[in-house]
């Protein structure tokens, strides 16, 4: 989100460095003359014209009837905090841009909730990203009477109780709500502020339990459709977040774990939304620093217990860049604590890129996830924050960036959420970034008042003709990554006792089968391609640790140890100790679904995946073997000869019936 960053100083090579992270505060400048009047968009379907819950099919989000549901969203911020972190939390001047939310969604002191929600619908919004802080959940202090002056029925309520009412009224109006854990503490985000990670100012256990509380709290409201797990994971003073290292800064592992817990322990209907890493490194020329966004997903993607529930997200603003922190550069005046030049580097900002360069960077950082089909990482991408200054934004680069970015959202038919929807104004002056502003007397200023240059681009975006109607089911492709512990994504197996104690276990989601393995690195690839669910609902599973099911005259890997499933069973998982194969997990298929003719696929000396293998590179830099789409894996072979690590060398692939 556009926001002011708190400075942090860290010693490095005996030099005092000031670390800042993007985004920074919204800019306010000289108001321009009235813009051309643009009519409000006409949206064919009303916000209520969809059936929850939501799920995914490939790159698309769909409703319960399988119809595409495009998230045309906005952020209604405030419940995660607007206080800057210094001064008095009761003083408006010490809140971001002078806007004091009162620990709840902004604007409830100035306009009735029904009016605010109606405003969202007027500008074409069908869904709301609703930030909250962990502190807000447990805050027992009632909101002040003044902070709900326009909504007196909220007097005496705690911030969470107000949040409850907001959720109820949004969904009653037909809007979808995405819960967004924005910060640990109730304050403006994002910088070196104690909110850099999910576990920055609290334990990971507290974070997970708070998510279970929130998911259960709204479980009976099916228009609460998503859990946006955490906002803008980034570096603190000393340490970077990472994607897959297995430590307490591992955002991949933390989001994988809590996503599965939400689905299995709280609400199986929610979309699980995972934002990429927002920033790593120290923004000083000559030192490593970057905005990874979703790029790590290409090499390591999530696999949840329920296929069709994962959405990835990313944020983009003009003043940030792929390697630029978004530090202030002395541009239009803003309410910011940053001094000119702090955290500044020579790296280009997104607004500095040509349209062609911008497209290339955006696709590399995020949009590839939805553009590349039939891969382990294919999923919808929700641009859950983007925005720009409004009437007072006179910068040519800023305006051009917004137009170009909107063009790319339309070009890619992407889901999106504008930041922010609600702001304050006095005499049509103020923060400026919001699409709807209210003054202290309750007078609204909107994007369609005739003096906001963003109106034409917003109309173009909201009214864009993207895909609509039914979306056919697609094959799912999923990565297994027991890199640092169990990666069991089968509900059926999770409900059973440990089937290989002491080993790291990997199991495909129910409905998928194992199709690929890597020679080293312990990675696996699952899919339901060609066959759909294979596991017999009445059938069991068998753990195979020896060659008892290798039939006479069928030595498909001579001289190697073969862990083969019995006839009528298929591979759904495996276990490892260190890098060595420990056991194979085989599941029973209904009679007549599995053939017996087979072939050996060797991958100990190179890739063996076929010329048009799907699933993407599920183990980058490793040799991989993969059965064909019309096959199933029925065995794993390895060697225990001297010098071998007992890693997988071959797969036994059999034809589906």
From TrEMBL:
Region span, Disordered: 82-101
Signal peptide feature range: 1-27
Gene Ontology BP annotations: polysaccharide catabolic process
Residue intervals of the Glycoside hydrolase family domain: 112-419
Name of the protein: Glycoside hydrolase family 5 protein
Keywords, sorted A to Z: Glycosidase, Hydrolase, Signal
PROSITE patterns referenced in this protein's UniProt entry, alphabetically: GLYCOSYL_HYDROL_F5
Pfam families, A to Z: Cellulase (PF00150)
PANTHER family: CELLULASE FAMILY PROTEIN (AFU_ORTHOLOGUE AFUA_5G14560)
InterPro entries in UniProt: GH, Glyco_hydro_5, Glyco_hydro_5_CS
Molecular function via GO: hydrolase activity, hydrolyzing O-glycosyl compounds
